[in-house]
Design goal:
globular; 20 helices; 23 strands
């Protein structure tokens, strides 16, 4: 008799901001629709799985954070499997597939997924399906959707092979088979997908064909000359659609009595007072930068210069009010939100959202718990279809979440950063219940900032710097808006903001009550800090607000030089850039003083808008400036074991600096590009090429 093929497989995820978890849950839900059972767990829940003994296929979904680091939930797992004492065949029974999430704006693309994949292979694990690498720079769904589509045949084949071979033998599928091929375009951001042996999945289980009726074909009013968020053009407007299956609801939400309580702070959260706020740019600068000083004199915060901390920020007040009114719950804002799991839910592993505290008011939940500005996922769009009464609006939402509408989804939702409120404004007949929003909106994330001061220079104080992010209006989002956290902070400090360029500070006669307070929490110590040996040279690259952590570095070095007059200190180079010398040269006076007193050996500044083009002109950007000092940089890094730091924009600056460094190594060492890249990779491995970058 043929052996009975099991239907169970394991899904493990490592997630920092919820993306990997959401994808893992989507795999679990699609599995159930296909008659498969996905055993879903977080990698941090080590008591729920045992890879050494696992007899079912295992699917990993892992993200990468920071400078190629594992997400917090995956750190212990990665440490365990990287132990050199593990025997080579530890995972000989393991049959697995892996989906890695990353962002090509950062140097170590999908590094966590690649690390896990490589180590599992070294320890005897066997792939039953080719690894996918999804790029958030162009849209995770470009790889994720196709990867999941091909997963089901691979899972069934692996289950069948494992059942036939017995519990001690894993799948023997060729590990070199490629199912998704990722090819970098010249920009480094493009992706091409090549599909091999992907049979069509069960359409009835995973997707629902939507046929356009003749009645819906003619849109009222004048014919649209171009597609938009709310209108499509042929062929999409006339196509049959494949839309995702409706995500199963899993929460029962009701409002209880009025309550007055505010959830207590978590153990690692601190309430701190803003003691000073200073503009760093002139009023006519393209970007407005602020320095904020926090009073942490009563806190024991082990934060080094360059260390990272999080600011807990609320959603925008007017957006919260607009959503409350749209939900028709404005009069019940002070009522307690009561959550329960639906007893008959079909959602696999459904849990109450941990980011919503008990006894929270509706106002608190919408203000502090849900990321209202997040770009809606297709699963949310699919659910909104069911809450929409207009046939035209319903059809357009179906298009935007469909396979055929992926280009429109990217163009009108993902690329312009459309949020839930933008959708509700564009589709007025859509009236979602509160439960749907709590199910689909991710946790409101805190925003990270680098310490721009040293405790040696400013005891009891903590500085940080930021640009006020401005997002202009666009057709999909007709209302301009500011960054969630930076806009909130700017409004918060406006009454106490000091004048640009000095001048008298605001009167303090009103007392401390006039100074606002915020909540912060510390992140685990990273590698972006001064070397323990002060004799090692520093090369710092930080245009714009990227200079912030280096101000802390230099303050620290200055004080160390005063306290240790006999010590040897290595050279320090700073490559800084901005648009205009007289408008946005941040910390100009401080930097010039560091040069005068010897703390900063070399200050190289470039102004991208002040310089004329042509031979003999000054360098325009920091990577141009680096190329002018190639011999010195090579000597500092290779002969004196110096450290190379980069802070700022990941999308352009950090890539340009990395390319300049490769060319610098290639030219000065007379080697080819591959060898130059190996030299730079060694610097990264030795933690001497460090980045604090953002997109």
């Amino acid at each position: 008799m043929p052996c009975e093929v099991a239907s169970r497989f394991v899904v493990l995820y490592g997630s920092q901001r919820g993306q990997a978890q959401a994808i893992a849950e989507e795999i679990g839900e699609q599995a159930a629709q296909r008659g498969l059972e996905a055993d879903l767990s977080c990698l941090s829940e080590k008591e729920k799985y045992d890879l050494e003994k696992e007899t079912a296929p295992v699917v990993f979904v892992v993200s990468t954070t920071g400078d190629g680091e594992p997400p917090d939930t995956a750190v212990p797992f990665v440490r365990r499997i990287k132990k050199k004492t593990l025997r080579r065949e530890r995972f000989a029974r393991l049959c697995y597939a892996l989906l890695a999430l990353g962002d090509t704006n950062y140097a170590n693309f999908c590094n966590c997924g690649k690390t896990i994949d490589k180590r599992l292979q070294e320890l005897g694990g066997k792939r039953f399906y080719a690894t996918g690498h999804a790029d958030d720079a162009v849209g995770l769904e470009l790889v994720v959707d196709s990867w999941i589509e091909g997963l089901w045949d691979a899972v069934r084949k692996a289950l069948s092979e494992m059942a036939a071979a017995g519990p001690a033998v894993g799948s023997q599928q060729d590990n070199s088979a490629v199912i998704l091929q990722e090819t970098a375009e010249p920009s480094g951001l493009g992706l091409k997908l090549r599909h091999l042996n992907l049979s069509e999945p069960d359409a009835e289980a995973s997707e629902q064909p939507i046929l356009r009726s003749g009645k819906e074909k003619d849109v009222p009013g004048n014919a649209a000359v171009d597609a938009s968020l709310t209108k499509s053009l042929p062929p999409l407007s006339e196509s049959s659609l494949k839309v995702p299956a409706l995500p199963p609801p899993y929460l029962s939400v009701c409002l209880g009595d009025e309550v007055n309580s505010v959830p207590p702070l978590k153990e690692n959260q601190h309430e701190v007072q803003i003691s000073r706020a200073v503009p760093l740019t002139r009023h006519d600068s393209v970007k407005a930068a602020l320095l904020i000083e926090l009073d942490v004199s009563d806190k024991d915060l082990p934060l080094q210069p360059g260390g990272v901390f999080d600011v807990l920020c609320p959603n925008n007040g007017s957006e919260v009010e607009e959503l409350l009114q749209r939900l028709k719950l404005g009069q019940r804002r002070d009522h307690c939100v009561l959550l329960e799991l639906l007893k008959d839910t079909r959602k696999k592993g459904a849990q109450l959202p941990a980011h919503i505290p008990e006894e929270s008011t509706l106002q608190y939940v919408i203000t502090w718990c849900l990321e209202l500005r997040s770009v809606p996922k297709k699963a949310l769009l699919r659910s909104l279809v069911e809450c929409t009464t207009s046939g035209f609006e319903k059809r357009r939402l179906q298009e935007l979440c469909s396979t055929q509408g992926s280009a429109d989804y990217n163009r009108f939702i993902r690329d312009p950063n459309i949020c839930l409120l933008d959708l509700l404004r564009a589709f007025p007949s859509c009236t979602p219940p509160l439960s749907l929003l709590i199910e689909h909106l991710p946790k409101l994330q805190s925003r990270s900032y680098s310490a721009a001061s040293s405790k040696l220079r400013h005891p009891g104080r903590l500085h940080f710097v930021f640009n006020i992010v401005e997002s202009p209006a666009c057709p999909e989002r007709p209302v301009a808006r500011r960054g969630l956290c930076t806009g909130w902070l700017a409004d918060l400090v406006a009454p106490v903001l000091q004048p640009y360029g000095g001048g008298p500070a605001p009167a303090e006669s009103s007392g401390d009550a006039a100074l606002p307070k915020i909540y912060i929490s510390l992140r685990p110590p990273g590698t972006f800090h001064l070397p323990a040996d002060p004799a090692l040279p520093l090369i710092m690259v930080g245009p714009g607000t990227g200079v912030a952590p280096f101000i802390g570095f230099l303050q620290h070095r200055e004080k160390e030089r005063e306290q240790m007059p006999g010590a040897t200190f290595g050279e320090s180079w700073l490559f800084f850039g901005c648009r205009h010398k007289d408008r946005d040269f941040l910390f100009r006076e401080d930097l010039e003083k560091f040069v005068v007193n010897g703390t900063l050996t070399h200050l190289k500044v470039c102004f991208s808008r002040d310089n004329s083009e042509g031979p003999g002109s000054s360098p325009k950007y920091v990577h141009h400036s680096l190329q002018l000092h190639s011999k010195e940089i090579i000597s500092l890094l290779l002969e004196q074991n110096g450290c190379f730091y980069v802070c700022g924009d990941a999308k352009n600056m950090a890539k340009d600096v990395n390319e300049a460094l490769i060319e610098l190594f290639r030219t000065e060492l007379q080697v080819d590009k591959l060898e130059a890249m190996k030299k730079i990779a060694t610097l990264r491995e030795e933690k001497r090429y460090l980045q604090d970058i953002w997109s």
